[in-house]
Amino acid sequence: MAVPEYPYQRETFAGGDSRLARFLARPILKFVHREVAGSVLLLVATAAALIWANSPWSGSYFDFWHTHIDISIGSFGLHPLTLEEFVNDALMALFFFVVGLEIKRELVTGYLASVRAATLPAIAAIGGMVVPALLYFMLNPSGEAASGWGIPMATDIAFAVGVVALLGSRIPPMLKLFLLTLAIVDDIGAIAVIAIFYTSDLNLKWLLAAVALLVVIRLLTVMKVWALEVYWLIGIVIWYATLESGVHATIAGVALGLLTPARPLLSRLEAQAVVDELPERPSIERVHHASFLVQESVPMTERLETLFHPFTAFLIVPLFALANAGVPLSGDTISDAAGSPVTWGVVAGLVIGKPVGITLFTWVATRFGFNLPEGMNWPQFIGMGFAAGIGFTVSIFITGLAFDDGGITDLAKIGILFASACAGIAALVVLALSGKAGDHPDETTLAMMSDDSMPPESAATDS
User: Do 356 and 378 contact (CB within 8 A), yes or no?
Assistant: First the structure.
């Protein structure tokens, strides 16, 4: 039998020598574990939505996503939601839960754990939010269109990292780390914008109920209650209370992610000792106990990310694109978009505002003692700024919150699609021309900044 290409295949079907395993299972697994896989599926879903919405069967597209569903048990249940609203309010809460997990991991054990080390990416991210919002607002200073200023502030991590990954060894490893850190800070900003500026008609009773249950979650984690079923039950109630409060329900997902413990119960050495102490023929009880302890040597945030990332990246986000990217592209619509300040505000914000804001704020920071990360040059930094201009998922999400008028919503979505394509192409071109394969530091720089580019990390505590 052939040796499995990946250690996780081991003696499974995918690790076998059959034709199905060699020509189907292993290629699929290889694709799924590539960084660009989620981006490819997102592109496919977007293309499918656009084709469907502009086909002779376009009516079925809008009828399908506007189908109402009623979830209730007796007299208790959700208010009727369309399928589109279910994807945006319920399924996307899980996506934002994973975002919350990523933020918590970075804050506790990652690059954001050191305030000093995270300062430059944070400054760059602020520039990448402020300048796009200002450019949009300059073109749309009043009326309903003005509420869309938050749209060009967002960065789609999957697309941005996917574009960078396409260039392989031509890109210094530190650029990817810097982009990830910047995008996470960008996510924090987008979440704050959604919670503060795109919330209306607050119901304080439901909001207080959600906050009280979040406090309960925190107390349970402090008490080291480790039964996940308890958290899932309370988490669902928190999501429902947040939905009824008027705050967008996805904020519940972020809050739950931030409350998830990011430090393991046991160290890896302690877990190894548990395994070493197992007798040659252990009882099933001993095996279960050892399995639990070994599992707890991995932080809960990391385990839940590993569990849910495939669902969000390969199912939920493509479903979101399929439900929201179907914009009619008739001659009149394209003509309206070409002359719309909403469309051009989004395009200017993402394609011009993002790279200019990120680069300008970083340049100012270098005047105050910060240096560019080791192995990066200014052209690469500008290329990274273009990659951050791929707003897509979160930009489309904010569009749905910003506008009640379907016409304006479509104009903004056309701007997002056009701008994201332009930013992605610009990022590829600039990054491809900004360096050569092998002219950057070794990948060990992914773990730390050089001493002259960033101050040493400080200790972090789990919250």
Answer: no
The H or E element that residue 29 is part of is helix 26-32
Query: Could you tell me which residues are beta bridge partners of residue 69?
Result: 81
Under a CB-based contact definition with an 8 Å cutoff, are residues 106 and 450 in contact? no
Using CA atoms, how far apart are residues 418 and 310, in angstroms rounded to an integer? 27
* Element of type H or E holding 72: strand 72-73
CA neighbor of 365 nearest in space, from 37, 53, 125: 125
Strand-pairing partners, residue 77, are 72
Helices (H) and strands (E) in the chain, counts: 22, 4
Instruction: Name the CA dihedral angle for 371, 384, 157, 62, rounded to a multiple of 10 degrees.
Output: 150
Residue 69, H or E segment: strand 68-69
Domain ranges of the chain: 49-67+79-87+115-197+314-438
Domain formed by 49-67+79-87+115-197+314-438, architecture: Up-down Bundle (1.20)
Read off the tokens for 348: 């200017």
* Rounded average pLDDT per 10-residue block, the chain, 463 residues: 45 58 54 62 89 91 88 68 87 89 84 77 92 95 90 85 76 81 86 82 87 93 84 92 85 90 79 73 74 78 86 88 88 89 95 94 90 81 91 89 87 93 92 65 42 38 46
